Amino acid sequence: MYERFTERARKAMALANQEALRLRHEYIGTEHILLGLVKEGTGVGAGVLKFLGVDLAAVREAAEKLVKPGPDKVAPGKLPHTPLAKKVIEYAIEESRGLNHNYVGTEHLLLGLGRQQEGVAAQVFTNLGLGLDRLRDEVRNLLRAATDKGARPAAAAEGPSPSPAVPPSPPEAPSALRQFLLTPAMGKRLIGKGLLQHGAIQAVLRKGTLAIVAGTTNGYVAEEILRATAQDKEFSRAGFRRGMVVPPSLDVASIKSPTAGDVILTDGIWQKGKEIFDVVDEMKAGDVILKGANALDVRRGRAAVYVGHPMGGTVGASIPAVIGRRTLMIVPVGLEKRVADDVQDLADMLNSPHAEGPRMMVLPGQVFTELDAIRLLTGASATLVAGGGVHGAEGAVWIAVRGLPAQVQAAEALVKSLAAEPPCQA
Questions:
Q1: Which structural domains are found in the chain, ordered by start?
Q2: The three-state (H, E, C) secondary structure of the chain, written as one string
Q3: Average pLDDT of each block of 10 consecutive residues along the chain (426 residues)?
């Protein structure tokens, strides 16, 4: 059954067997295959879930809530598959053929799970807002990105088993490329639109707590989310900030807009007047914190934030939830905040005893930029290629968008829809 499986896919299935034994089940079901994929953690399948903003610990917790351990310990050994699990494997093989691959990797197992509309794994995907189309698009994006960089897809890097074998045929190469200019304000709006469609955001709006920490980029995110849920009439981006950077010639005190609090939504309902400090102690896996940043390392996918409060401010309050209880942190940050060095090195420098000015902290969250928004909303890949401008385009960036013609056309229409976005005034 596993002749064409990669090492990682075989490992995922072996871990599925282990998960079934741990739960004292006498069979391997779709839930065990999902748990095996999550536990394996290094293949394209797990990478797709991570990119879509799905915390792997949350997947595990969601699956285990839906299954109950068996009454008696099961003798160790290879367990049989349920009919639904067998169907998942059949679907995985079909997905592999559909992508013109001669191997079955963790990405194909993930797509097989996505195609199976019955069973525990299907319930987990539904609860997390993950549909087959989104999974398939992201698998193609990740495989295409690996091919664009001159590498073989991650799950195929170890080669199909058994070896020797012919290297898998790469996915279809992108056939179109266009370049687009994004001003900082256009970028903020784009990030807001992208996060509205993010799998973790869609899931937490149905059930859970979403904390949007006040900040200029997060103001656009909050506006998009509140507008989509018909709760935006009393919201204004003016004053939705903790701090603000303005030209040296401008006195911050002259800006009259009052500072607003954060936006907290519970099961999709805006809890007006509440801040992150009011809810963070109860946040857990499945909940989401959106926290902005001041420095972005694009190459490493890491971001850091200035810290002015001696107790760490909002990020200091978030750490116990993120690290201690696996609350997902997403970091919406524009490309205009890119820096040349590793943000950890910058934080070490600014936090040294002899330094003056704000401190800096590397954020333990998933970075989400304009590039991620393009990828999520259109299926095309996007790359930062240049920056700068005048007459209102100061801080703007040029991005190259690659993909199938329809994807690039969708990206063009999306960017055009943002062209009239006025400069940000918070």
A1: 7-156 (1.10.1780.10), 183-372 (3.40.50)
A2: CCCCEEHHHHHHHHHHHHHHHHCCCCCECHHHHHHHHHHHCCCHHHHHHHHCCCCHHHHHHHHHHHCCCCCCCCCCCCCCECHHHHHHHHHHHHHHHHCCCCCECHHHHHHHHHHCCCCHHHHHHHHCCCCHHHHHHHHHHHHHHHHHCCCCCHHHCCCECCCCCCCCCCCCCCCEEEEEEECHHHHHHHHHHHHHCCHHHHHHHHCCEEEECCCHHHHHHHHHHHHHCCCCCCCCCCCCCCCCCCCCCCCHHHCCCCCCCCEEEECCEECCCCCHHHHHHHCCECEEEECCCCEEECCCCEEEEEECCCCCHHHHHHHHHHHHCCCEEEEECCHHHECCCCHHHHHHHHCCCCCCCCEEEECCCEEECHHHHHHHHHCCEEEEEEECCCCCCCCCEEEEEEECHHHHHHHHHHHHHHCCCCCCCC
A3: 82 90 88 87 81 71 76 82 89 84 88 81 74 74 57 42 34 68 96 91 92 94 95 88 72 63 94 94 93 92 89 88 91 95 94 92 92 85 90 91 85 95 83
